[in-house]
Amino acid sequence: MRLVFASNNAHKLAEVREIMPAGIEVLSLREIGFEHDIEETGVTLEENSAIKARTVADFIGERLTVKGERIDGVFADDTGLEIDALGGKPGVYTARWYLQDEGATEAKTEMENYALNRAKALRELDGQSNRGCQFRTVITLIKAKGEGREAKGAEIQVEGIVRGRITTEEYGEGGFGYDPIFVPEGYDKTFGELPAEVKNNISHRARALAQLVKVLQP
């Protein structure tokens, strides 16, 4: 089975490929020649996930083929950090939350972007005793409907959630994004400290991908 993952995030791509079972090949946007930015105009994770999947499926074409080879589907994810004490923020704005600060300017690198987001999370929760939160991933799949000239299939959405808490400082250098400040329930280490194989078994993305695999099974 060959699927296109609608993301240019190298960290996400590596994580998805590590989690997906044998027999499912995951192609990157670069590998299919998609070099455009996708404008995420949705106000929910569900909407943005669908926007990304539809955009890439439309780029591939109605028959879902790349360079003459059939693609079994396109999937996209959108992930949000939802902090209890902040009413579920940053949610859909998780990826560039720091830009909501007055006078903030665009980060020069992906790593700087991550660092600025983590710093904002720690500032927003400074002095808060309630540090509960969850990561939620929504995946939209557009699956090939059938052989020949049949149209693309219907959209399917699945999600994965992992509860946890935000630390008061950063721990660990593994993972990416908010991983060094997020401790999942049942553990005493952050995603930044836990081995990748542990994170990939319990993370929000792993749980969403497990649901995706169930949908893909005949």
Short description:
Helix 1 (10-19) links the parallel strand 1 and strand 2 (25-27). 35% of the residues are buried.
Q: What percentage of amino acids are in beta strands?
A: 15-25%
Overall number of strands: 8
Radius of gyration over C-alpha positions, nearest whole angstrom = 18 Å
Q: Can you tell me the overall shape?
A: globular
Task: Write down the CATH topology.
Answer: Maf protein
Category from helices, strands and their pairing: alpha/beta
Largest sheet: 6 strands, mixed
Chain oligomer state: single chain
Distance between the termini: 11 Å
CATH class: Alpha Beta
How much helix is in the residues?
A: 25-40%
**How many distinct folded domains?**
1
Strand and helix order: EHEHEEEHEEEHH
Tally the helices: what do you get?
A: 5
Poorly predicted regions are: none
The residue-averaged pLDDT reads: 92
Provide the spatial order of strands within the biggest beta sheet.
2-1-5-6-7-8
Name the CATH architecture.
Alpha-Beta Complex
Describe the structure.
28% of the residues lie in helices and 24% in strands. It is α/β, with parallel strands linked by helices and 218 residues long. A six-stranded mixed β-sheet has the order 2-1-5-6-7-8. The protein has a two-stranded antiparallel ribbon with strand order 3-4. The longest helix has 16 residues, at 45-60. It is globular. The relative contact order is 0.15.
